[in-house]
Amino acid sequence: QVQLLESGGGLVQAGDSLTLSCVASGRTLRSFATGWLRQAPGKEREFVAAIKWGGGGTYYSDSVKGRFTISRDNAKDTVYLHMDSLRPEDTAVYYCADQLTPVTGRGYATGWNQYDYWGQGTRVTVSS
Protein backbone atom coordinates (compact mmCIF):
# COMPACT_ATOMS: atom_id res chain seq x y z
CA GLN A 1 0.00 0.00 0.00
CA VAL A 2 1.58 3.25 -1.15
CA GLN A 3 1.11 6.23 1.13
CA LEU A 4 1.46 9.72 -0.27
CA LEU A 5 1.94 12.84 1.81
CA GLU A 6 1.65 16.31 0.29
CA SER A 7 3.00 19.50 1.78
CA GLY A 8 3.78 23.06 0.77
CA GLY A 9 0.35 24.58 0.33
CA GLY A 10 -0.57 27.96 1.70
CA LEU A 11 -1.95 31.42 1.06
CA VAL A 12 -0.18 33.46 -1.61
CA GLN A 13 -0.91 36.47 -3.78
CA ALA A 14 -1.53 36.43 -7.49
CA GLY A 15 1.75 36.31 -9.36
CA ASP A 16 3.58 34.51 -6.56
CA SER A 17 5.27 31.13 -6.76
CA LEU A 18 4.84 28.05 -4.61
CA THR A 19 6.32 24.55 -4.59
CA LEU A 20 4.37 21.52 -3.45
CA SER A 21 6.00 18.26 -2.40
CA CYS A 22 4.67 14.72 -2.38
CA VAL A 23 6.59 12.07 -0.48
CA ALA A 24 5.78 8.41 -1.01
CA SER A 25 6.27 5.58 1.45
CA GLY A 26 5.43 1.90 1.55
CA ARG A 27 6.19 1.45 -2.13
CA THR A 28 6.96 -2.13 -3.13
CA LEU A 29 6.50 -1.71 -6.87
CA ARG A 30 7.56 1.14 -9.11
CA SER A 31 4.60 3.08 -10.41
CA PHE A 32 4.22 4.21 -14.01
CA ALA A 33 3.72 7.85 -13.09
CA THR A 34 2.76 10.24 -10.34
CA GLY A 35 0.32 13.01 -10.97
CA TRP A 36 -0.96 16.18 -9.38
CA LEU A 37 -4.67 16.88 -9.51
CA ARG A 38 -6.65 19.67 -7.90
CA GLN A 39 -10.16 20.32 -6.75
CA ALA A 40 -11.58 23.78 -6.40
CA PRO A 41 -14.68 24.42 -4.27
CA GLY A 42 -17.78 23.22 -6.05
CA LYS A 43 -15.84 21.75 -8.94
CA GLU A 44 -14.71 18.33 -10.00
CA ARG A 45 -11.18 17.11 -9.41
CA GLU A 46 -9.07 18.00 -12.44
CA PHE A 47 -5.75 16.87 -13.78
CA VAL A 48 -2.81 19.26 -13.46
CA ALA A 49 0.42 17.46 -14.33
CA ALA A 50 2.08 14.06 -14.30
CA ILE A 51 5.59 12.67 -14.46
CA LYS A 52 6.81 9.21 -15.33
CA TRP A 53 8.88 7.25 -12.86
CA GLY A 54 11.42 6.22 -15.44
CA GLY A 55 12.76 8.71 -17.96
CA GLY A 56 11.10 11.70 -16.38
CA GLY A 57 8.61 12.34 -19.16
CA THR A 58 6.01 14.93 -18.21
CA TYR A 59 2.52 15.94 -19.22
CA TYR A 60 0.56 19.08 -18.33
CA SER A 61 -2.94 20.36 -18.60
CA ASP A 62 -3.34 23.35 -20.91
CA SER A 63 -4.38 25.55 -17.98
CA VAL A 64 -0.99 25.24 -16.27
CA LYS A 65 1.39 24.59 -19.15
CA GLY A 66 4.21 27.12 -19.09
CA ARG A 67 3.52 28.12 -15.47
CA PHE A 68 3.85 24.88 -13.53
CA THR A 69 6.74 22.43 -13.54
CA ILE A 70 6.57 18.89 -12.23
CA SER A 71 9.74 17.08 -11.23
CA ARG A 72 10.82 14.13 -9.15
CA ASP A 73 13.68 12.90 -7.05
CA ASN A 74 13.59 9.12 -7.34
CA ALA A 75 16.16 8.64 -4.58
CA LYS A 76 13.81 10.42 -2.18
CA ASP A 77 10.66 9.06 -3.83
CA THR A 78 9.41 12.63 -3.90
CA VAL A 79 7.52 14.50 -6.60
CA TYR A 80 7.41 18.28 -6.72
CA LEU A 81 5.06 20.74 -8.35
CA HIS A 82 6.60 24.17 -8.78
CA MET A 83 3.96 26.76 -9.55
CA ASP A 84 4.80 30.16 -11.00
CA SER A 85 2.58 33.11 -11.89
CA LEU A 86 -0.21 31.84 -9.68
CA ARG A 87 -3.71 33.06 -10.40
CA PRO A 88 -6.83 33.17 -8.22
CA GLU A 89 -8.30 30.40 -10.38
CA ASP A 90 -5.46 28.12 -9.24
CA THR A 91 -7.03 28.10 -5.78
CA ALA A 92 -7.82 24.49 -4.89
CA VAL A 93 -6.84 21.50 -2.81
CA TYR A 94 -3.94 19.86 -4.61
CA TYR A 95 -3.57 16.10 -4.47
CA CYS A 96 -0.77 13.87 -5.61
CA ALA A 97 -1.69 10.44 -6.85
CA ASP A 98 0.06 7.34 -8.09
CA GLN A 99 -0.70 5.69 -11.40
CA LEU A 100 0.49 2.10 -11.34
CA THR A 101 0.05 1.20 -15.01
CA PRO A 102 -0.14 3.26 -18.20
CA VAL A 103 -3.48 3.96 -19.85
CA THR A 104 -4.10 3.34 -23.52
CA GLY A 105 -2.80 6.09 -25.73
CA ARG A 106 -0.62 8.73 -24.10
CA GLY A 107 0.01 6.56 -21.06
CA TYR A 108 -0.62 9.32 -18.52
CA ALA A 109 -3.85 9.21 -16.59
CA THR A 110 -5.83 12.43 -16.65
CA GLY A 111 -9.02 11.21 -15.04
CA TRP A 112 -9.17 11.10 -11.27
CA ASN A 113 -10.56 7.56 -11.36
CA GLN A 114 -7.50 6.31 -13.26
CA TYR A 115 -5.21 6.81 -10.28
CA ASP A 116 -4.56 4.09 -7.73
CA TYR A 117 -3.30 5.83 -4.59
CA TRP A 118 -3.98 9.31 -3.24
CA GLY A 119 -2.58 11.68 -0.70
CA GLN A 120 -4.76 13.70 1.65
CA GLY A 121 -4.23 16.96 -0.25
CA THR A 122 -2.72 20.34 0.49
CA ARG A 123 -4.65 23.58 0.12
CA VAL A 124 -3.45 26.40 -2.09
CA THR A 125 -5.22 29.74 -1.91
CA VAL A 126 -4.29 32.53 -4.32
CA SER A 127 -5.60 35.97 -3.46
CA SER A 128 -6.11 38.66 -6.10
Descriptive account of the structure:
By secondary structure, this protein is mainly beta. It has no helices and eleven strands. The strands form two sheets. Strands 2, 4, 5, 6, 9, 10 and 11 form a seven-stranded mixed sheet that branches. Strands 1-3-8-7 form a four-stranded antiparallel sheet, with no helix packed on it. A hairpin with a 6-residue loop joins strand 4 (33-39) and strand 5 (46-52).
For the termini, the CA-CA separation is 40 Å
> Percent of residues in helical segments?
under 10%
Residue-averaged pLDDT: 95
Percent of sequence in beta strands = over 45%
Globular, elongated, flat, extended or rod-shaped: what is the shape?
globular
Q: Please provide the count of β strands.
A: 11
H/E topology pattern? EEEEEEEEEEE
What's the alpha carbon Rg, rounded to whole Å?
14 Å
For the largest beta-sheet, the strand count, sense and barrel status come to:
7 strands, mixed
Contiguous low-pLDDT stretches (5 residues minimum) are none
Counted by DSSP, the helix tally is 0
Q: Which structural class fits the helix and strand makeup?
A: mainly beta
